[in-house]
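Dear support,

We are seeing what looks like truncated structure output for some complexes. This example has two components. We would appreciate it if you could run it in full and send us the complete token output so we can diff it against ours.
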Amino acid sequence: GAVVSQHPSWVICKSGTSVKIECRSLDFQATTMFWYRQFPKQSLMLMATSNEGSKATYEQGVEKDKFLINHASLTLSTLTVTSAHPEDSSFYICSARVGLVWGEQFFGPGTRLTVL
Amino acid sequence: QKEVEQNSGPLSVPEGAIASLNCTYSDRGSQSFFWYRQYSGKSPELIMSIYSNGDKEDGRFTAQLNKASQYVSLLIRDSQPSDSATYLCAVNAAAGNKLTFGGGTRVLVKP
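Here is the complete output from our reference environment:
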């Protein structure tokens, strides 16, 4: 399958700081990437859909000014958590879709964010 | 009613047996269907995709799709302890563009 990387794999930060997470498709071009959040023992929650060259589409209840998404190239999307607070601590996972709208999505390894 | 439903489990299976997982979905126009495996603390890993009615086999895994009944299933043959994980059913709805996930079924394979 296609390979998606994420960086960093884990990060600890102080409350009020901003954290940037990178998601890269390594062996394919992804016009669409997705950002998910997962709390312990819960299922994935889609945060936003990121399309290359255009503004991200956020799911209901997700603050777009807090979770900034940039998809500047066909292989890179970034998620910035601004002014992070302890309740933002979670497992953030990106995915990238291969090919058409109904194509397969491959997930990155995830970033575990802990806000102190 | 949830859009994609799975039994949360745990589904306990003896080593070497067949594990059978089911998933139902509500959007009749859904176009593509996926099974992901997620180990604790890790991200999901795609193990099967299926787009048309019938069976699709890949190694020890078989996915079955029945669009008329709106269900998709996954069979794991010769289950191994390493198959112990949460299995997520995901459906790409008629409107396309994003996956809807079920809550996952936790599978425990006992030696």
